[in-house]
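#onboarding

Welcome to the new folks! Below is a worked example of what a typical request in this channel looks like: someone posts a single protein sequence, and someone else replies with the predicted structure as tokens. Don't worry about understanding the tokens yet, we'll cover that in week two.

Example request:
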Amino acid sequence: MLFEMEERTLEKGIRRGRAEGILDLLCEPGEVNQTVREQIYAQKEDEVLRTWHKLAARAQSVQEFVQKAFKN
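Example response:
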């Protein structure tokens, strides 16, 4: 049980680190509004975060990232 809690804490930390990496990339071309920040931090799926990281690295603007990442 303790191991499961530690594993979940570690996974949460990894997701947060990925989210912060995305935001660091996005801050280069412009300011990231609070709504986008919250959506990135709320994402629980690692594969989505990986995809967003690649999008953020290639995006010329925050708006371009938002259009591609949240197109649903």
